[in-house]
C-alpha cells in the first residue's frame, strides 16, 4: 500500500472514530503528496465543516474546482458542495466543463439538473432532465422534479401529464398528488378525491407523503366548497408534519431577541463602502405575503432582472462569521457578527450574485426569510433597497397553515406556534424600522392587488427607478417561477386571496386569539 492509500485509509478510520483532527492531518499529508486528489479535497472539506471551519472548507472546495477530472459525476459533486457553502460562481463554472456536454449517464444528468435548479437556472435544468430522459432515465422522483421544472417554465399542461406519469410509477407519492391538486381548481366532475382516498390506505403512516395526501385532499375539498371535510384533512396534515419537526418555540423567541439585541442603531450605523455594478433589490417578508407577485412586477421593468430566491446573503454572512450551519441564522452567527468585516461581506455577496443582472442595472433577490437579516443586509449593502411585503395577519397565517413547506418552516404546522412566530416577526420588523429608519419600504399586499399601478410607482421610486407602462401586466412576464405561487402569478392580478380565511373563521378562532392585538 503506497503513502496515498495509507493516508486515505487512516482518514476514513479516524472519521469513523470521530477523530476529526487526526483525519484532517492524514488528508493534509495525502494532499501534500498528491495535490490533485479531488476526492481527498472533498473529504477534507467535509472534515473541516465538521470542525466548524467554513472558510478553510471553502478553500479546499475551490482548489478541487481547479483540478476537476474528466468525470461528470465528480464534477457534479464538486459543484453541489460549492453551492452548499456559497461559492456560487465557482459551482456554475464547474458546469461549463466539456465533460458535462459529453456525458450520457441519466442519473448524473439528473443530479446536474438539480444543481442548475439550485442555481435558479430553470431552462438549463429542464434541458438536462430532457437529456436524462432521452438516455432512458426514469423513476417517480425524476418524473416529479421534471414536472416541477415544466411548471416553473410555464409549460403547465405538460407538467400535469408528467405528474400523472409520476403517480402511475409511484402511486403513494404524496407530493406529486398535492402538486397536481394545486395545478387548477378542482370540480365535482374533475377531481382526484377517490384516488387520494385510496392512496391514504397504502401510504406509510406518519410520513411526509402521508401528510401531503392530506394537504392534497384539503385543496380539492376546499375547491368543491366542502369546508368541514376540508378543514379536518388540513388539520390532520399539519399535525402529521408538526410531529415530524423539532420545533422549539422558546429557542425561536430567543433567536429573534438575539438578532434585535445585536443589531442596535449604533451597530447598524457603521456602513460599508459604496457598491459598484448592478444593484440588488431585496424582497423580504413572511412566506405567502405576495413576494413573488412583487418580484414579477419589478421583473417587467427594462432595468431589472429577476434572480429568484437566492441563498447567497445568508451563506456569505456565514462565511463572514466563519460559522458553518444549515439554518438562515443561529446564535453562533449572531455572536460573531459583532466582529465581521461588512465591507468584505458586501463585496463577496456582490461577487457571487451580480452575474444574475444579465446586463441590467438592478436584480431582485427575493428570499422571504431574509427579513431576519435586514440589518446585516443594510450594513453590508447600504445602497441596496429592501422591500418588505406585508399582508393582513389572518390572511398570511392561514395561507401558511394551508401550505406544505416540507421542513422549511416548522412553525407553520401548529396554530399556537404560527401565532407566536407571527408576533416575533412583527416585533423584529418594528425593530428594523426603529433602528434604521428609511432603510425598508413596507409594501401592502392588499394595496398592491387593489391598485397595482399606484403601489408599483411607489416601489420603483423607492428603488430609484422610473415607472414604465406595462410593469403591472404580470401575464407578459414569461420568466421562470420556482415558488408555490408559480401558477397564480401567471394569471392577471386579482383580489381573490383577500379574506379567504373567513370561510374557516370558526375553526381559526384559536389562531386569532393567539395573535391577540396583531389580528386587530
Automatic annotation (TrEMBL):
InterPro entries assigned to the protein according to its UniProt record, in alphabetical order: P-loop_NTPase, TPR-like_helical_dom_sf, TPST-like
- Which GO terms fall under molecular function for this chain's record? protein-tyrosine sulfotransferase activity
Q: Does the keyword Transferase apply?
A: yes
Q: Which UniProt keywords apply?
A: Transferase
Keyword Transferase included in the entry's annotation: yes
Q: Which PANTHER family match?
A: PROTEIN-TYROSINE SULFOTRANSFERASE, PROTEIN-TYROSINE SULFOTRANSFERASE 2
What is the name of the protein in this document?
TPR repeat-containing protein
Amino acid at each position: 500500500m503506497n503513502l496515498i492509500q495509507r493516508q486515505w485509509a487512516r482518514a476514513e478510520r479516524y472519521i469513523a472514530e470521530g477523530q476529526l483532527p487526526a483525519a484532517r492531518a492524514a488528508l493534509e499529508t495525502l494532499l501534500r503528496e498528491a495535490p490533485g486528489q479531488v476526492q481527498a479535497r472533498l473529504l477534507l472539506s467535509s472534515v473541516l465543516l465538521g470542525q466548524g471551519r467554513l472558510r478553510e472548507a471553502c478553500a479546499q472546495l475551490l482548489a478541487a474546482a481547479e483540478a476537476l477530472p474528466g468525470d461528470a459525476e465528480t464534477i457534479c459533486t464538486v459543484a453541489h458542495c460549492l453551492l452548499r457553502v456559497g461559492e456560487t460562481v465557482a459551482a456554475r463554472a464547474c458546469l461549463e466543463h466539456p465533460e458535462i456536454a459529453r456525458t450520457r449517464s441519466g442519473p448524473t444528468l439528473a443530479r446536474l439538473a438539480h444543481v442548475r435548479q439550485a442555481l435558479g437556472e430553470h431552462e438549463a435544468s429542464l434541458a438536462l432532465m430532457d437529456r436524462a430522459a432521452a438516455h432512458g432515465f426514469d423513476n417517480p422522483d425524476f418524473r416529479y422534479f421534471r414536472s416541477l421544472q415544466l411548471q416553473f417554465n410555464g409549460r403547465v399542461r405538460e407538467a400535469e401529464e408528467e405528474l400523472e406519469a409520476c403517480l402511475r410509477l409511484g402511486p403513494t407519492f404524496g407530493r406529486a398528488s398535492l402538486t397536481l391538486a394545486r395545478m387548477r381548481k378542482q370540480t365535482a366532475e374533475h377531481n382526484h378525491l377517490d384516488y387520494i382516498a385510496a392512496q391514504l390506505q397504502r401510504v406509510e403512516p406518519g410520513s411526509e407523503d402521508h401528510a401531503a395526501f392530506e394537504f392534497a385532499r384539503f385543496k380539492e375539498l376546499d375547491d368543491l366548497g366542502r369546508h368541514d371535510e376540508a378543514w379536518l384533512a388540513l388539520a390532520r396534515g399539519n399535525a402529521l408534519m408538526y410531529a415530524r419537526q423539532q420545533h422549539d418555540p422558546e429557542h425561536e423567541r430567543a433567536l429573534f431577541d438575539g438578532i434585535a439585541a445585536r443589531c442596535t442603531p449604533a451597530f447598524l450605523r457603521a456602513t460599508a463602502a459604496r457598491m459598484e455594478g448592478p444593484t440588488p433589490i431585496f424582497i423580504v417578508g413572511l412566506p405567502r405575503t405576495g413576494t413573488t407577485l412583487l418580484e414579477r412586477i419589478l421583473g417587467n421593468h427594462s432595468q431589472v432582472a429577476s434572480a429568484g430566491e437566492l441563498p447567497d446573503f445568508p451563506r456569505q454572512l456565514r462565511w463572514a462569521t466563519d460559522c458553518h450551519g444549515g439554518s438562515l441564522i443561529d446564535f453562533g452567527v449572531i455572536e460573531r457578527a459583532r466582529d465581521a468585516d461588512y465591507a468584505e461581506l458586501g463585496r463577496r455577496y456582490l461577487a457571487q450574485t451580480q452575474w444574475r443582472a444579465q446586463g441590467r442595472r438592478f436584480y431582485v433577490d427575493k428570499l422571504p426569510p431574509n427579513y431576519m437579516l435586514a440589518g446585516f443586509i443594510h450594513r453590508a449593502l447600504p445602497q441596496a433597497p429592501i422591500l418588505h411585503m406585508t399582508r393582513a395577519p389572518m390572511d398570511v397565517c392561514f395561507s401558511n397553515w394551508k401550505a406544505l413547506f416540507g421542513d422549511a418552516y416548522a412553525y407553520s404546522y401548529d396554530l399556537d406556534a404560527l401565532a407566536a412566530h407571527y408576533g416575533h416577526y412583527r416585533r423584529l420588523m418594528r425593530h428594523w424600522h426603529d433602528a434604521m429608519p428609511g432603510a425598508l419600504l413596507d409594501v401592502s399586499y392588499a394595496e398592491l392587488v387593489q391598485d397595482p399601478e399606484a403601489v408599483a410607482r411607489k416601489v420603483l421610486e423607492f428603488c430609484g427607478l422610473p415607472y414604465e407602462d406595462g410593469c403591472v401586466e404580470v401575464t407578459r412576464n414569461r420568466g421562470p417561477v420556482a415558488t408555490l405561487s408559480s401558477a397564480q402569478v401567471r394569471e392577471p392580478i386579482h383580489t381573490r386571496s383577500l379574506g379567504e380565511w373567513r370561510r374557516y373563521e370558526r375553526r381559526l378562532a384559536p389562531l386569532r386569539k393567539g395573535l391577540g392585538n396583531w389580528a386587530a
